[in-house]
Structures are given as structure tokens and as C-alpha cells.
């Protein structure tokens, strides 16, 4: 069985404990395909020097956000198991990129705030793959394309970030509409994905709205991973197209069953 590939806009960690449209969208998308045997996950919140593959058998839940959030959010635990054997396989798959196994990380909120709604029983093994800060967008695309092979073994490739992510805009525009660059850039990415125009997405920094809408490379790069894992004849399915100042929750699924 072949698993889909997903890019999800994860937004605020508060989505983990709120009945938000995004949370309902994540639960709804998981119901549209068979339960994967495992998840290979790339999150905006694990950046490293070098490609790292989480090899923990029992990854910890990482509360990687500061003060100001309610205690209920810090109390969330997502005890999904890891899968060391899969981590080793991914390490081999990504050996051309110098990948190394790593047990220092766990599941950050880019992972668990989404998975708590997709698989609330925390019964699907998860292996995170880091974002190598030294890589170019083209190289990230190549890594994502290599991960696509996992789908044939019913491993869900899940990338978590945001098409639009600018916290300065978010806090400055609380009572104002989103800057026009946010909508323009989000639509540009959606149109490019629809047209299977991977080059435009990989070269997103050439778009004039990028500096306003997507200045944070770590949050945009998972978009590239999702796209790179797309099969040749797979049409994208867009969901959670919710845009607020500085944040787009837009998510994209590839390879959903008919």
C-alpha cells in the first residue's frame, strides 16, 4: 500500500488543544487514507548543521515555545513510539546527503500539535528528519525526493511548516487585514503546485512578495519537501486554506485515494 505525502501548515501550537478549523482539517485528512505503518516527518522546528534522523525508540514530547501559553499546552504529551529500524533505513536512504542518526531530539510542536488530531491514540511510529540549515532549496528538494521512496512501504511523508510565516506581521496586524503580499504569495504557491511547477516553488525567493510573506526559511522549506515527495501523476489536494496576517494554514496532500 502506498501512503500519501502531506504538507501541513501548523501555525500556533494552540491548535493542539483547541477545536480550530485547522485541527478539524488534520483529523479529516487522516480519515481519507489508510493508517500508515509509520510516519517520516520533517518539521520547521528541528534545524541542524547536517541531516539528522531521529533514532529514539521512545521520543520525548518537546514543548518548544516560550512563556505566555497556558499550562494545558505544556501538559500535552504525545507518546508515539519511534522506529529505530526505519530510522536506520532512512539514514541509508539519505546517506548521499551525509545523514546521521540522532537521539537528542524528540517530537516538537510542529509534529505533535498536528499528530494529536490526526492520530490521537499516538499509535503510529514517528521518525523525524531534520532540516539541514546548510542546504540550498534545491538540495532540500533532492532530500525530499529521496524520502518519497518510503511511501511505497506505506510510510507517510509528512512535512510541517507554513507557506506564509512572518511573526512580525502577525503581531503587528492583530486588528488589521493581512498584507496583500501574504495573499499574493500563498496564491502563487498554490497555483505553482496545481501546475506541477516545482521549479517555481523551489525558487520561491525570486517572488517579489517572499520577503514579506515568507522570510523564515525554516517554515517555508517543508513546503518543498511535500512537493518533492509528489508522485508523477498525483494531483494536489488543498485544505485548511485559512489566511491570517503573517500565517497561512494552507495544507497540501498528494496521492490521496480516489
Could you please describe the fold and organization of this structure?
The structure is a single chain. This protein has ten helices and ten strands. It is of the alpha/beta class. It has a single domain (5-254), classed as LigB-like (Protocatechuate 4,5-dioxygenase, Chain B), CATH 3.40.830. The strands form three sheets. The protein has a six-stranded mixed beta sheet, with helices on both faces. The model has no long low-confidence stretch (mean pLDDT 96).
Give unreliable regions as ranges. Answer: none
CATH architecture: 3-Layer(aba) Sandwich
Largest sheet: 6 strands, mixed
Strand order of the largest sheet: 5-2-6-1-10-7
The CATH topology = Protocatechuate 4,5-dioxygenase, Chain B
Corresponding CATH superfamily: LigB-like
Kindly summarize this structure in a few lines.
This protein is of the alpha/beta class. It is 34% helix and 19% strand. The chain has one domain: Protocatechuate 4,5-dioxygenase, Chain B (3-Layer(aba) Sandwich), CATH 3.40.830.
Secondary structure blueprint with pairings:
Blueprint: E1 5-9, H1 21-30, E2 38-48, E3 52-54, H2 71-74, H3 84-93, E4 100-102, H4 109-118, E5 126-132, H5 137-147, E6 155-161, H6 167-172, H7 180-194, H8 198-202, H9 210-213, H10 217-228, E7 236-239, E8 243-244, E9 247-248, E10 251-254
Parallel strand pairs: 1-6, 2-5, 2-6, 3-4
Antiparallel strand pairs: 1-10, 7-10, 8-9
Helix pairs in contact: 1-4, 5-10
Amino acid at each position: 500500500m502506498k501512503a500519501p505525502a502531506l504538507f501541513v501548515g501548523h501555525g500556533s501550537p494552540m491548535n493542539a488543544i483547541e477545536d480550530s478549523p485547522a485541527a478539524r482539517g488534520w483529523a479529516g485528512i487522516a480519515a481519507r487514507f489508510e493508517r500508515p505503518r509509520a510516519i517520516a516527518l520533517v518539521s520547521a522546528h528541528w534545524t541542524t548543521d547536517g541531516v539528522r534522523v531521529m533514532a529514539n525508540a521512545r521520543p520525548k514530547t518537546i514543548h518548544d515555545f516560550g512563556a505566555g501559553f497556558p499550562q494545558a499546552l505544556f501538559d500535552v504529551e504525545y507518546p508515539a513510539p519511534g522506529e529505530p529500524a526505519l530510522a536506520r533505513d532512512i539514514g541509508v536512504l539519505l546517506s548521499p546527503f551525509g545523514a546521521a542518526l540522532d537521539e537528542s531530539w524528540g517530537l516538537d510542536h510542529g509534529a505533535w500539535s498536528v499528530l494529536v488530531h490526526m492520530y490521537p491514540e499516538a499509535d503510529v511510529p514517528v521518525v523525524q528528519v531534520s532540516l539541514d540549515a546548510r542546504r540550498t532549496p534545491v538540495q532540500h528538494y533532492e532530500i525530499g525526493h529521496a524520502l518519497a521512496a518510503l511511501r511505497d512501504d506505506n510510510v507517510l511523508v509528512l512535512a510541517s511548516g507554513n507557506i506564509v510565516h512572518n511573526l512580525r506581521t502577525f503581531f503587528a496586524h492583530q486588528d488589521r487585514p493581512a498584507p496583500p503580499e501574504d495573499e499574493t504569495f500563498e496564491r502563487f504557491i498554490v497555483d505553482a503546485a496545481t501546475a506541477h511547477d516545482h521549479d517555481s516553488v523551489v525558487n520561491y525567493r525570486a517572488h517579489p512578495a517572499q520577503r514579506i510573506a515568507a522570510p523564515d526559511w525554516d517554515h517555508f522549506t517543508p513546503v518543498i519537501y511535500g512537493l518533492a515527495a509528489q508522485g508523477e501523476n498525483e494531483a494536489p489536494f488543498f485544505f485548511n486554506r485559512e489566511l491570517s496576517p503573517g500565517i497561512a494554514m494552507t495544507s497540501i496532500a498528494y496521492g490521496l485515494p480516489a
